[in-house]
Design goal:
single chain; ANK repeat; Ankyrin_rpt-contain_sf; Ankyrin_rpt
């Protein structure tokens, strides 16, 4: 945790995404990191609902990995529980489908 805090204090880009569009928060959840790191990343992420290139957001990833700590923290932070394709469903609904 100390290393992460040091990197952030030195200006490491908190919004960096890898080639799959995953953020540090995505990776911390996938690795089942501890509560302290996940909370830190939630606090330093501009969009906790950000979806990677496959359409998965941190809350969806936490739920699919049965990571109850991350799920709880994300919900407390106001993460959106919607579906991966909410925008498509909304448009289809507007056109009567």
């Amino acid at each position: 945790m100390e290393l992460v805090e040091t990197l952030y204090s030195k200006g490491v880009d908190a919004q960096y995404k890898d080639q799959l569009g995953r953020s540090g928060l995505h990776h911390a959840i996938k690795a089942n990191c501890g509560e302290e790191l996940i909370q830190f990343l939630i606090e330093h992420t501009t969009d906790i609902n950000y979806r990677d290139k496959s359409g998965l957001n941190p809350l969806g990833l936490a739920k699919s990995n049965n990571c109850t700590v991350a799920t709880k923290l994300l919900l407390e932070a106001g993460a959106y529980e919607g579906y991966m394709y909410d925008d498509v469903i909304k448009v289809l609904g507007e056109y009567g489908y």
